[in-house]
Amino acid sequence: MSLAPFVQIVARGKGRARPMTLAEAQEAMTLILQGDAAPEAVGALLMVMRLRGETPAEIAGFTAALRAHVDGKLPKADLDWPSYAAGRSRGAPLFLLAARLVGQAGYRVSMHGWNSHQSATASVREAIDLAGPHVTYTALENLSPAAFALLNLRDTFGLRSCFNTVLRMWNPSGAPATVQGVFHPSYRSLQAEAAQMLGQQDLSIIKGGGGEFERHPSKETIVFGLRDGAHIQETAAPILQGIRRLHEAGEQIDQSGLWNGRAHDPFAVATITGTAALALWTLKAAPTLDEADTMARNLWALRHHTESLSA
Fold first, then answer.
1. What is the C-alpha separation between 97 and 18, in angstroms, rounded?
2. Which residues contact 270 (CB under 8 A, 6 or more apart)?
3. In terms of domains, do 59 and 104 share one?
């Protein structure tokens, strides 16, 4: 089958075009991932959707197709943690140490991703060992070459497509809970609506550092998402006083030193524990945000003892 009927749906012209239904979007993305669509048609579909804005049903349909395409390739996990931020403004990936705390709390964390145009200090892959033994990381190009090729169409278009959002929604390990970071705040509600259509039960989405799930400790953080399948919107209060950027240009952070106690950086530690708290709250390890913050700080204080017990 050709992709042309789906391009016609979204691009017929004023008064005649319409968004795809979830089923139509799933069928269209299935064709694309199978390699059965002409590249010109793929580009037309994705760029028309970018111009007018994608809908939750379209994102849900694309995500359902991607999930079916790679079903069973990853072991089950408790928490899905996508990492797809790009750009040179990113600083050290402190969220890796946050994920490590969640792992030491007894949860299996599945990370997957691709991060382009990043400096060496911001590289997730070069620092992935900091996430510890309870966090797995799977590179997108290994998990799904077809998805990797779609993401890299950005180099052809000169623009991102909605597939960046689909990758954050993916959850290839089938985890019951997931956390997502976005760069543009408007995507928080879009992704929450799409996740509800897909039957996701527990989800937290924040505007995070550079688009990652990483909490700014001196700012109020609004959390969108789902709890038991119902929409939520909660506000996490600042952890620290004062105003500063989450990542300062050229800032060097010794993450290994932070974990081992050789380095001291209260702002970085608050970023780590605050991010871990939101993940633990998503997992229902703590019933309230305040209790999750306390739990994360305790995990940080006991991190070496806990790690020795689980070694």
1. 44
2. 217, 218, 239, 240
3. no
- In tens, the pLDDT along 187-215 reads 999 999 999 999 999 999 999 988 999 99
Question: How many angstroms separate the Cα of 29 from the Cα of each of 22, 44, 111, 223?
Answer: 11, 13, 23, 29
Closest CA to 42 of 166, 153, 158, 143: 153
Give the predicted TM-score (pTM) of the model: 0.95
Query: Do the beta carbons of residue 7 and residue 48 sit within 8 Å?
Result: yes
DSSP 198-247: TT--EEEEEE-GGGSS---TTS-EEEEEEETTEEEEEEEPPSS-S---SS
Q: How many domains does the chain have?
A: 2
Question: What is the number of residues in the chain?
Answer: 311
Domain boundary (69, 91, 107) is at: 69
Calculate ∠ Cα 222-228-230, nearest 5°.
60
Domain harbouring 176, CATH code: 3.40.1030.10
> Do 265 and 97 form a contact (C-beta atoms < 8 A)?
no
pLDDT, tens only, 57-108: 999 999 999 999 998 889 999 999 999 987 666 789 999 999 999 999 999 9
Question: Which burial class, exposed, middle or buried, applies to 222 when counting CB atoms under 10 A from its CB (0-12, 13-18, 19+)?
Answer: middle
Distance of CA 173 to the CA centre of its chain: 13
Sign of CA dihedral 36, 44, 157, 173: negative
